[in-house]
Amino acid sequence: MLVNSKQMLLEAKEKKYAIPQFNINNLEWTKTILEKCNEMNLPVILGVSEGAIKYMGGCNTVVGMVKGLIKDLNIQIPVCLHVDHGQSFELCKKAIDAGFTSVMIDASKYPLDENFRITKEVVDYAHEKNVTVEAEVGHIGGTEDNITSNANNATLEDCLEISKTGIDSLAPALGSVHGLYKGKPNLDFKTMKEINDNLEIPLVLHGGTGIPNDDIKKAIECGISKININTELQIAWHNDVVKFVKEFESVYDPRKVIGSGKNAMLKAIEDKNILFFRL
Ligand SMILES: [Zn+2]
After folding, report:
1. Dist. CA 205 → ligand 1 center (Å)
2. What domains are defined for the chain?
């Protein structure tokens, strides 16, 4: 069932666990994530970056593929289809019109008043169509869609201000980064808890790859209700595909080559679900 993220995130916030957002890149990714989460009977958010949307052909292709898989594989869990780091109102609108059930508008590169204005525009359009909206304040650094940027931590004041746009969830930058960490992650748990104590809406942690399990548990205790995972599945998949290609150099069937990373992905998805849902 394709749903927005409202109910699942509020429930996660109340019961103190986190919903994973697994980013998808293609059919195989989507199918593997849906199958595993359905088998574990857990809700899931499928994140799609602008780069991944372009790669797969466009918003309509992504929506069609996800809807088709839900039907054909008889997926029974709540599935949210979410734009990851939408950079503009136009992109968010296009995704909403195509059938995405949730969007992130990331205007965090702008000053707060401009971030507020763009986010509010997206919220007004999205809510009319029953679509949920995530925003970002401060700026999460690292590498996303091959673009590298510097981090800038959020403050409680920024969070309170942006929440007035009516957003459904918020990603405050608090030391996590996209891609791989250089050195040890340094999350600001104190501010995280303070923001959670002062805000009604669920909080989102980006850059979940490479954060030690104990820090993930601590973040959930401090009020994080959604954690984004992207790089980790890619690395799990890549390790096994490299092994396969080295061992079976003459195999050219793309289903076998791409599929050789599936078991590693299944394991990574299961591990994240156990950790995030505190099973
Ligand atoms: Zn992110």
Report:
1. 8
2. 6-276 (3.20.20.70)
